C-alpha cells in the first residue's frame, strides 16, 4: 500500500502541471457568458467571402481541432514543461484576449447557408450551427489555437528531434483547420486574418521577447566578466 501511494505521489509531482488544463473550463464559462449576453453590432464580411465555396467535408478538420489541441497539450506536457507552459500562455491568454475583444467589439457573421441535405457531413455542420452561434467570431479561436499548437510544437527541442514528417503533419493540420473555418462558413476570412494577427503578437510576446531579454542579460554578464 505504501509503495502504491508513493508511486501515485510521484506521478502527481511529475504531471501536476496538467492541472492548468482546468483553465479551459474557466475560459468556456466566459465564452458561454459572451454567447448569452453580447448583442452584435458589427458583422464580419469581406468580398472574398463570396468567392469561398461551402465545402461540407471540411467539417472533419474543423472537428479534428479538438484532437489536435489534445495532442499538443499531452505531448508537450510529457516531454517539455517549458514548452507546455508556453502553449498554456498562448492558448489561454489568447482566448481571454478574444473574449475581451468580443465584449469591446461585439461581432457576428451572416455567412451560414441553409442546409437542406441530410448526409453525415450536413448533419454534423447543422449540429455545430445549433450549438455554436454566429456571434463572437473575430478573432477566430479555432485559427488562433491551431497556430498556437503548431508554433509550440515546432519550437520544442524534443519535437525537433522527431522526423520532419511530424512537423509537416502539424503544419498541414493547422492549415486545414484554419481553412475549414471559412469553408463550412463558420467564420469570415476577416476572422482568420484577425486571429493570425493576434497569434503573431502573442508569438513575439511569448517566444521572441523572453529570448531577446535572456540574450541581452547574457551579453551584459559576459561583458562584465570580460571587464573584470
Description of the molecule:
- The protein has one domain.
- The protein has nine helices and two strands.
- The longest helix is centred in the last third of the chain and has 39 residues.
- The mean pLDDT is 89.
Order of helices and strands: HHEHHEHHHHH
The counted number of beta strands is 2
State which percent range the strand residues make up: under 5%
Structural class: mainly alpha
Q: Can you summarize the main beta sheet?
A: 2 strands, parallel
Q: Which bin fits the share of residues in helices?
A: over 70%
Q: Which regions have little confidence, pLDDT < 50, spanning 5+ residues?
A: none
**What is the mean predicted local confidence, pLDDT?**
89
Quaternary structure of the protein = single chain
Strand order of the largest sheet: 1-2
| Cα distance spanning the termini | 58 Å
**Helix count from the secondary structure assignment:** 9
User: What's the Cα radius of gyration?
Assistant: 21 Å
Number of domains: 1
Give the overall form: globular
Element layout with pairings:
Blueprint: H1 2-15, H2 23-37, E1 42-43, H3 59-79, H4 81-104, E2 107-108, H5 120-131, H6 141-154, H7 157-160, H8 164-183, H9 189-227
Parallel strand pairs: 1-2
Helix pairs in contact: 2-4, 3-4, 3-6, 3-8, 4-6, 4-9, 6-8, 6-9
Describe this protein with a few key phrases.
228 residues; 2 strands; 9 helices; mainly alpha
Short summary:
The chain is an all-alpha fold and 228 residues long. Helix content is 71%, strand content 2%.
